[in-house]
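Customer ticket, subject: "Can you confirm the structure for Putative spermidine/putrescine transport system permease protein?"

Message body: Hello, I'm evaluating your service for our small team and ran a test protein. I'd like someone to confirm that this is what the system normally returns, since I don't have a reference to compare against.
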Amino acid sequence: MQKNGPIALIFHGLVVTFVLAPLVVICLVAFTPENTLSIPTTSFSLRWFREIFVHPDFVASFANSLWLATLSATISVALAVPAALAIDRYDFPGRDALNGLFLSPLIIPHLVLGVAFLRLFALIGATGSFGWLVASHVVVITPYVMRLVMAALSGLDRSAEKAAMTLGASHWTVFRRVTAPMILPGITGGWLLAFINSFDELTMSIFVTSPQTVTLPVRMYMYATESIDPMMAAVSALMIALTAAAMLVLDRAFGLDKILVGQK
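Agent reply: Thanks for trying us out. I re-ran your input and got the following:
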Protein backbone atom coordinates (compact mmCIF):
# COMPACT_ATOMS: atom_id res chain seq x y z
CA MET A 1 0.00 0.00 0.00
CA GLN A 2 1.36 3.39 -0.99
CA LYS A 3 1.74 5.82 1.92
CA ASN A 4 1.19 9.55 1.79
CA GLY A 5 4.29 11.68 1.87
CA PRO A 6 4.84 14.52 4.34
CA ILE A 7 3.57 17.18 1.90
CA ALA A 8 0.31 15.26 1.35
CA LEU A 9 -0.14 14.79 5.10
CA ILE A 10 0.42 18.50 5.74
CA PHE A 11 -2.06 19.40 2.99
CA HIS A 12 -4.68 17.00 4.38
CA GLY A 13 -4.12 18.38 7.87
CA LEU A 14 -4.66 21.95 6.63
CA VAL A 15 -7.86 20.94 4.84
CA VAL A 16 -9.23 19.21 7.94
CA THR A 17 -8.28 22.19 10.10
CA PHE A 18 -9.94 24.60 7.66
CA VAL A 19 -13.15 22.56 7.75
CA LEU A 20 -13.29 21.91 11.50
CA ALA A 21 -12.02 25.24 12.85
CA PRO A 22 -15.32 27.16 12.37
CA LEU A 23 -17.27 24.32 14.02
CA VAL A 24 -14.93 24.29 17.01
CA VAL A 25 -15.20 28.08 17.39
CA ILE A 26 -19.02 27.94 17.25
CA CYS A 27 -19.13 25.22 19.89
CA LEU A 28 -16.81 27.20 22.18
CA VAL A 29 -18.81 30.42 21.78
CA ALA A 30 -21.98 28.51 22.72
CA PHE A 31 -20.58 28.07 26.26
CA THR A 32 -19.73 31.73 26.86
CA PRO A 33 -21.36 33.46 29.85
CA GLU A 34 -21.09 36.85 28.11
CA ASN A 35 -23.76 38.70 26.12
CA THR A 36 -21.62 38.94 23.01
CA LEU A 37 -20.12 36.43 20.59
CA SER A 38 -16.89 35.64 22.38
CA ILE A 39 -14.86 32.58 23.28
CA PRO A 40 -15.04 31.95 27.05
CA THR A 41 -11.73 32.63 28.75
CA THR A 42 -12.53 32.39 32.47
CA SER A 43 -15.49 30.02 32.78
CA PHE A 44 -17.99 28.01 30.77
CA SER A 45 -21.74 28.44 31.07
CA LEU A 46 -24.91 26.68 29.87
CA ARG A 47 -26.76 30.00 29.97
CA TRP A 48 -27.45 30.20 26.24
CA PHE A 49 -28.56 26.58 26.01
CA ARG A 50 -31.17 27.33 28.68
CA GLU A 51 -32.22 30.42 26.70
CA ILE A 52 -33.18 28.22 23.76
CA PHE A 53 -35.88 26.49 25.78
CA VAL A 54 -37.15 29.81 27.12
CA HIS A 55 -38.12 30.80 23.56
CA PRO A 56 -41.19 28.74 22.55
CA ASP A 57 -40.68 29.73 18.91
CA PHE A 58 -37.40 27.82 18.77
CA VAL A 59 -38.92 24.76 20.45
CA ALA A 60 -41.86 24.78 18.01
CA SER A 61 -39.54 25.25 15.04
CA PHE A 62 -37.36 22.36 16.22
CA ALA A 63 -40.45 20.14 16.42
CA ASN A 64 -41.46 21.25 12.90
CA SER A 65 -38.01 20.45 11.52
CA LEU A 66 -37.88 17.07 13.25
CA TRP A 67 -41.33 16.04 12.01
CA LEU A 68 -40.65 17.44 8.55
CA ALA A 69 -37.28 15.68 8.16
CA THR A 70 -38.67 12.35 9.41
CA LEU A 71 -41.64 12.40 7.02
CA SER A 72 -39.61 13.66 4.06
CA ALA A 73 -36.83 11.11 4.50
CA THR A 74 -39.29 8.23 4.89
CA ILE A 75 -41.27 9.20 1.78
CA SER A 76 -38.01 9.64 -0.15
CA VAL A 77 -36.97 6.09 0.73
CA ALA A 78 -40.40 4.78 -0.32
CA LEU A 79 -39.95 6.47 -3.71
CA ALA A 80 -36.24 5.90 -4.26
CA VAL A 81 -36.00 2.17 -3.48
CA PRO A 82 -38.46 0.93 -6.17
CA ALA A 83 -37.13 3.52 -8.62
CA ALA A 84 -33.54 2.41 -8.02
CA LEU A 85 -34.54 -1.25 -8.44
CA ALA A 86 -36.27 -0.51 -11.75
CA ILE A 87 -33.40 1.59 -13.10
CA ASP A 88 -30.70 -0.85 -11.98
CA ARG A 89 -32.34 -4.08 -13.15
CA TYR A 90 -34.56 -3.31 -16.12
CA ASP A 91 -34.01 -1.83 -19.56
CA PHE A 92 -37.07 0.14 -20.65
CA PRO A 93 -37.83 3.27 -22.72
CA GLY A 94 -37.14 6.40 -20.69
CA ARG A 95 -34.85 4.64 -18.21
CA ASP A 96 -32.10 7.25 -18.49
CA ALA A 97 -34.66 10.07 -18.42
CA LEU A 98 -36.17 8.68 -15.21
CA ASN A 99 -32.74 8.43 -13.63
CA GLY A 100 -31.95 11.99 -14.64
CA LEU A 101 -35.30 13.19 -13.30
CA PHE A 102 -34.69 11.73 -9.85
CA LEU A 103 -31.13 13.10 -9.67
CA SER A 104 -31.82 16.51 -11.27
CA PRO A 105 -32.43 18.38 -7.97
CA LEU A 106 -28.72 17.93 -7.23
CA ILE A 107 -27.78 20.37 -10.01
CA ILE A 108 -30.60 22.89 -9.57
CA PRO A 109 -29.84 25.70 -7.08
CA HIS A 110 -32.14 25.58 -4.08
CA LEU A 111 -32.88 29.27 -4.56
CA VAL A 112 -34.36 28.48 -7.97
CA LEU A 113 -36.33 25.57 -6.53
CA GLY A 114 -37.66 27.77 -3.74
CA VAL A 115 -38.94 30.41 -6.14
CA ALA A 116 -40.43 27.73 -8.40
CA PHE A 117 -42.24 26.02 -5.53
CA LEU A 118 -43.47 29.35 -4.20
CA ARG A 119 -45.00 30.18 -7.57
CA LEU A 120 -46.48 26.69 -7.95
CA PHE A 121 -48.03 26.67 -4.48
CA ALA A 122 -49.48 30.13 -5.04
CA LEU A 123 -51.11 28.97 -8.29
CA ILE A 124 -52.75 25.91 -6.71
CA GLY A 125 -53.62 27.64 -3.44
CA ALA A 126 -51.33 25.50 -1.30
CA THR A 127 -49.26 28.26 0.27
CA GLY A 128 -48.49 27.54 3.93
CA SER A 129 -49.51 23.87 3.78
CA PHE A 130 -47.29 21.50 5.77
CA GLY A 131 -48.04 18.69 3.33
CA TRP A 132 -46.74 20.66 0.38
CA LEU A 133 -43.70 21.67 2.43
CA VAL A 134 -42.99 17.96 2.90
CA ALA A 135 -43.44 17.42 -0.86
CA SER A 136 -40.90 20.14 -1.68
CA HIS A 137 -38.36 18.61 0.71
CA VAL A 138 -38.93 15.16 -0.78
CA VAL A 139 -37.98 16.53 -4.20
CA VAL A 140 -34.74 17.97 -2.83
CA ILE A 141 -33.54 15.02 -0.73
CA THR A 142 -34.63 12.02 -2.84
CA PRO A 143 -31.41 12.10 -4.95
CA TYR A 144 -29.33 11.32 -1.85
CA VAL A 145 -31.34 8.17 -1.21
CA MET A 146 -31.24 7.21 -4.89
CA ARG A 147 -27.47 7.45 -5.11
CA LEU A 148 -26.82 5.27 -2.06
CA VAL A 149 -29.46 2.66 -2.89
CA MET A 150 -28.20 2.37 -6.48
CA ALA A 151 -24.64 2.04 -5.19
CA ALA A 152 -25.77 -0.77 -2.88
CA LEU A 153 -27.60 -2.50 -5.74
CA SER A 154 -24.65 -2.23 -8.13
CA GLY A 155 -22.47 -4.36 -5.86
CA LEU A 156 -25.18 -6.86 -4.93
CA ASP A 157 -24.62 -10.56 -5.59
CA ARG A 158 -27.94 -11.79 -6.99
CA SER A 159 -27.22 -15.48 -6.50
CA ALA A 160 -29.14 -15.51 -3.20
CA GLU A 161 -32.14 -13.92 -4.92
CA LYS A 162 -32.07 -16.50 -7.70
CA ALA A 163 -31.80 -19.31 -5.19
CA ALA A 164 -34.84 -18.02 -3.29
CA MET A 165 -36.90 -17.76 -6.49
CA THR A 166 -35.81 -21.25 -7.51
CA LEU A 167 -37.21 -22.52 -4.20
CA GLY A 168 -40.58 -20.96 -4.97
CA ALA A 169 -40.42 -17.61 -3.21
CA SER A 170 -42.49 -14.78 -4.68
CA HIS A 171 -40.93 -11.53 -5.89
CA TRP A 172 -42.22 -9.71 -2.79
CA THR A 173 -40.86 -12.38 -0.47
CA VAL A 174 -37.48 -12.27 -2.22
CA PHE A 175 -37.33 -8.53 -1.81
CA ARG A 176 -38.48 -8.57 1.81
CA ARG A 177 -36.36 -11.50 3.01
CA VAL A 178 -33.30 -11.33 0.74
CA THR A 179 -32.84 -8.10 -1.23
CA ALA A 180 -33.88 -5.56 1.41
CA PRO A 181 -31.58 -6.94 4.16
CA MET A 182 -28.65 -6.99 1.71
CA ILE A 183 -29.11 -3.34 0.68
CA LEU A 184 -30.16 -2.18 4.15
CA PRO A 185 -26.94 -0.18 4.72
CA GLY A 186 -27.66 1.82 1.55
CA ILE A 187 -31.29 2.36 2.54
CA THR A 188 -30.40 3.36 6.09
CA GLY A 189 -27.58 5.63 4.98
CA GLY A 190 -29.80 7.22 2.36
CA TRP A 191 -32.55 7.84 4.92
CA LEU A 192 -30.13 9.39 7.37
CA LEU A 193 -28.49 11.66 4.78
CA ALA A 194 -31.94 12.67 3.55
CA PHE A 195 -33.00 13.40 7.14
CA ILE A 196 -29.93 15.55 7.79
CA ASN A 197 -30.32 17.50 4.54
CA SER A 198 -34.02 18.09 5.16
CA PHE A 199 -33.41 19.15 8.76
CA ASP A 200 -30.68 21.62 7.70
CA GLU A 201 -32.45 22.95 4.59
CA LEU A 202 -32.71 26.76 4.61
CA THR A 203 -32.53 28.37 1.16
CA MET A 204 -35.60 26.70 -0.32
CA SER A 205 -37.54 26.54 2.95
CA ILE A 206 -37.52 30.33 3.30
CA PHE A 207 -39.85 30.54 0.29
CA VAL A 208 -42.28 27.75 1.17
CA THR A 209 -42.76 27.98 4.95
CA SER A 210 -45.58 29.83 6.68
CA PRO A 211 -45.72 31.29 10.22
CA GLN A 212 -47.14 27.94 11.40
CA THR A 213 -44.55 25.77 9.63
CA VAL A 214 -41.32 27.70 10.22
CA THR A 215 -38.41 25.28 10.48
CA LEU A 216 -35.44 25.65 12.81
CA PRO A 217 -32.95 26.90 10.16
CA VAL A 218 -35.50 29.49 8.99
CA ARG A 219 -36.16 30.54 12.59
CA MET A 220 -32.42 30.95 13.14
CA TYR A 221 -32.17 33.08 10.00
CA MET A 222 -35.08 35.26 11.11
CA TYR A 223 -33.57 35.68 14.57
CA ALA A 224 -30.13 36.50 13.15
CA THR A 225 -31.57 39.34 11.03
CA GLU A 226 -32.77 41.03 14.23
CA SER A 227 -29.94 40.36 16.67
CA ILE A 228 -26.76 38.35 17.00
CA ASP A 229 -26.02 36.80 20.37
CA PRO A 230 -24.49 33.54 21.63
CA MET A 231 -27.89 31.81 21.52
CA MET A 232 -27.34 31.33 17.79
CA ALA A 233 -24.08 29.59 18.60
CA ALA A 234 -25.87 27.38 21.13
CA VAL A 235 -28.52 26.35 18.59
CA SER A 236 -25.79 25.69 16.03
CA ALA A 237 -23.85 23.59 18.54
CA LEU A 238 -26.96 21.49 19.20
CA MET A 239 -27.45 20.93 15.47
CA ILE A 240 -23.78 19.95 15.10
CA ALA A 241 -24.15 17.52 18.00
CA LEU A 242 -27.32 16.04 16.49
CA THR A 243 -25.64 15.51 13.12
CA ALA A 244 -22.50 14.05 14.70
CA ALA A 245 -24.56 11.67 16.85
CA ALA A 246 -26.53 10.48 13.81
CA MET A 247 -23.35 9.82 11.84
CA LEU A 248 -21.79 8.03 14.81
CA VAL A 249 -24.81 5.74 15.14
CA LEU A 250 -24.68 5.03 11.41
CA ASP A 251 -20.96 4.27 11.58
CA ARG A 252 -21.41 1.92 14.53
CA ALA A 253 -24.36 0.15 12.92
CA PHE A 254 -23.10 -0.29 9.35
CA GLY A 255 -19.80 1.57 8.86
CA LEU A 256 -19.54 4.83 6.95
CA ASP A 257 -16.95 3.37 4.57
CA LYS A 258 -19.41 0.68 3.52
CA ILE A 259 -22.28 3.11 3.04
CA LEU A 260 -20.64 6.19 1.56
CA VAL A 261 -17.61 4.71 -0.19
CA GLY A 262 -18.88 1.25 -0.99
CA GLN A 263 -16.08 -0.66 0.70
CA LYS A 264 -16.85 -4.22 1.77
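A couple of notes from the result: DSSP finds 13 helices and no strands in the chain. Residues 113 and 227 are 28 Å apart (CA to CA). Feel free to reply with more questions.
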